[in-house]
Amino acid sequence: FIMFGKVFNFFKYHGFPIGKKRYISIPSSILSNTKYSIACVRGIFNTDGSIYSRYSKKYDNHAKHYILMNIEIKMTNKYIIYQIKSILDSLMIKTNNIRKNKESYVLKITHQFHIKKFMDIIQPSNKYHVERYLNRCR
Questions:
Q1: Residue 7's pLDDT is what?
Q2: Does residue 3 lie in a domain region?
Q3: What CATH number did the domain enclosing 31 receive?
Q4: Are strands 68-75 and 104-109 parallel, antiparallel or unpaired?
Q5: Could you tell me the maximum CA-CA distance found in the chain, to the nearest angstrom?
Q6: How many CB atoms sit inside 10 A of residue 132's CB?
Q7: pTM above 0.85, yes or no
């Protein structure tokens, strides 16, 4: 319980709201600090992100080869997804335009150079994401 109190106080100190969080955003104290911004994106990607292969079929008579990667973050919170895009832009990680998909917003990175840059800078700690990325890089 002592550790929970320290974690609770950390988030409270940095401006995270207490109670129900239907319309929240990333606090300015996080956005103004590059180290915290990267950690914030890492945490969100670890829980709400995915990395997957997409096929490279360009023409009808070409075979499908799953050689390209996609990074995707999907959330119902519009404000946070736009803040994530802004953080990634500031890190010079190019993203696609945010799309609304039913009740959620989707942010994708499809350019392979920027996927590598995302993985190098953000350094996700979700074992599943890291393994998928490393398996693709072999």
A1: 79
A2: no
A3: 3.10.28.10
A4: antiparallel
A5: 62
A6: 16
A7: no
